[in-house]
Amino acid sequence: MKKLDKLIIKAFIGPFVATFFITLFVLIMQFFWLWIDDFVGKGLDAGTIFKFIWYQSAALIPLALPLSVLLSSLMTFGNLGESFELVAIKSAGISLLRFMRPLFIVASCIAFGAFLFSNYVIPIANLKSRTLLADIVLAKPAFAIKEGVFFDGIDKFAIKIGKKEANDSIIRDVIVYQSEGRNGLQDNFLVAKDGVMKPSADKRYLDIVFKNGWRYEERGNRGDSSTEYVRLGFKEYKMQMDISAFNFKKSDDSANVNNEKMYNMRQLDVAIDSLSKFTEDISSNFENNMFSNLIILNYKDSVVKGVKLPDSILNFKKNIEIYMNPKKDSVKK
């Protein structure tokens, strides 16, 4: 390697590394900008977020590499031209292709490395990031009840709070609508002046102690004469709501393992071969069924081969008319 090659490569490496990480950061921010609504309010820990960023960064590297190579090349030759080094190189009789040759070699090495990375690392990164993204999107929002608004995120419950104290545990003017019974056909209604709300130790349930209120219950089947409507007054009433669905749960990768984006070249070849065999079997079965149902297709080359058609096929139209109009045929006879 000559000094000119070292000069060009050294001038290229710095801008390439800088533009690569800047481009990757911009692409990650663009991704989060599209999915920000599904990440906010999910109660995700820092480890889960950084793990997703790690997987998604690996998946976005094939998009960041071409942009970083382009920008760093422009910056490299721009800096060399600004410092009149390109003028000195040209005045020494060195052609443009000669002093660009080291960058062609470096770009070829980057392309080969990107191919290996896309073949062996990107499928795994896509699988992990897709599974984790599905878990985050499908997770319900973190528990948050606003004042003066009905919150129906809890299964079979709708709760409205008139006012919450600063610690979010003491609540005022509470209304709770509860749907119970088979197919949710029984409605219960609760009104309380105040109460205390706090999650359980394992964060699976929300315990609420209502004070000074009324509970309206419907007992029996709706529309039945035996249905009872009960009103209960209470000084203190305790209710427990299941909020386990609000917790983030990580699922298995097997749900997305059959997606074509998760395959490398060897797995794609196997899948293409399997699809080709499946297509051939479908075509063969269709052709066999077609020939078995339409007998006339067995004699499609009769004119060429001199095969005589049976009378059952020659009189096919007449037989159909007799079958459709049996009375008319009997009258003729």
From TrEMBL:
UniProt-annotated location(s)? Cell membrane
Its membrane topology, per UniProt?
Multi-pass membrane protein
Q: Which residues cross the membrane?
A: 12-33, 53-78, 99-122
Keywords of this protein's UniProt record, alphabetized? Cell membrane, Membrane, Transmembrane, Transmembrane helix
Chief location of this protein within or outside the cell: membrane
Looking at the record's lineage, which domain of life comes first? Bacteria
Q: Could you tell me which InterPro entries the record lists for this protein?
A: LptG/LptF_permease
Q: Lipid metabolism as a keyword? A: no
Name-wise, this protein is LptF/LptG family permease
